[in-house]
Design goal:
about 280 residues; four-stranded antiparallel sheet; binds adenosine-5'-triphosphate; ATP hydrolysis activity; transport; nucleotide-binding; P-loop_NTPase
Length: about 280
């Protein structure tokens, strides 16, 4: 998308892409991350950064360590070595709800929605981090709890409109086709109003039309809310079209990092995808 313009070397300096989007300075940095599961080294000494407002892809063959990396970014896994810097400070190990409060939301490779609940109720669960009224408040200060409920509902409805799923807002999620479920999952993550949105294979299992829709929504979310997006995706066409920068992993190592054009022309990346031996 933005092959001609390269991000500045200075991590604090922003830039404007060819299509007029403003990308800020570095908001998150992975420094020498190593993650092991027993004897398996899923991530080996990987460093890269994420800029505010950019669409950053992580690609690589099966088992390369992409999901593990997304789980490190989301705070679900704590790496044995290395540091995650977020908003200028080292991020300490934390519980998933604390990460959510820090402005990081995600969708999953296998849809994780409440199938028996309506679309609206599923999207509302994304607002849980924004609900401050306690049980006591709800009893004593009924007005406060009610106001909060109204605000959360308005936000959920706004996102439902934005993602064009008004017609199914009262439909139980279990009855929806796959592509729409994925969109509801995106809506729920957006309802948290994240600063960084992590998408784990958002197009997996979709037909061409569904992929086009999802691509458009990802671009619209980034454009309209300025949300930083980190995504794992196997469809190369989609990745190269959507992303500002791409990290390429293979066997737990980083073998490429740059604009789609740079990555496309990187010999090590080409070899990894063609299955050329590493010896
Ligand atoms: N919870 C776990 N316990 C043990 N090993 C794991 C665990 N999660 C991942 N691994 C191993 O770590 C390596 C990287 O896996 P990961 O799922 O991160 O790769 P991936 O690039 O996301 O793969 P795919 O594209 O197939 O989803 C693999 O060898 C995998 O078997």
């Amino acid at each position: 998308m933005n092959e001609a313009i390269h991000p500045p070397i200075n991590p604090h300096e922003g830039y404007v892409t060819e299509d007029g989007r403003t990308i800020g300075g570095v908001v998150m940095e992975m420094k020498h991350i190593t993650l092991r599961f027993g004897g398996v080294e899923a991530i080996k000494d990987i460093s890269f950064d994420i800029r505010e407002g950019e669409i950053r892809a992580i690609i690589g063959p099966n088992g390369a360590g992409k999901s593990s990396m997304l789980n490190v970014i989301s705070g679900f896994y704590n790496p044995q070595e290395g540091e995650v810097w977020y908003k200028g400070a080292i991020r300490k190990p934390m519980k998933p709800y604390q990460v959510a409060r820090q402005g990081i939301a995600r969708t999953f490779q296998n849809i994780a929605l409440f199938e028996g609940m309506t679309v609206l109720d599923n999207v509302m669960t994304g607002r849980l981090n924004h609900m401050k009224a306690s049980f006591l408040d709800q009893g004593l200060w009924w007005g406060k709890a009610q106001r909060e409920e109204v605000e959360n509902r308005e936000k959920a409805e706004e996102i439902i409109d934005f993602l064009e799923i008004q017609a199914i807002r009262k439909t139980p999620v279990g009855r929806l086709p796959y592509g729409l479920k994925k969109r509801v999952e995106l809506a729920r993550a957006l309802a948290a109003e994240p600063r960084i949105l992590l998408l784990d294979e958002p197009m997996a299992g979709m037909n061409v039309e569904e992929k086009e829709d999802m691509s458009r929504f990802i671009l619209d979310v980034n454009d309209e809310f300025g949300t930083t997006i980190v995504l794992i995706e196997h469809d190369m066409g989609v990745v190269m079209d959507l992303s500002d920068r791409v990290v390429v992993m293979d066997y737990g190592k980083k073998i490429g990092d740059g604009t789609p054009d740079e990555v496309r022309n990187n010999q090590e990346v080409i070899d990894a995808y063609l299955g050329v031996s590493h010896d």
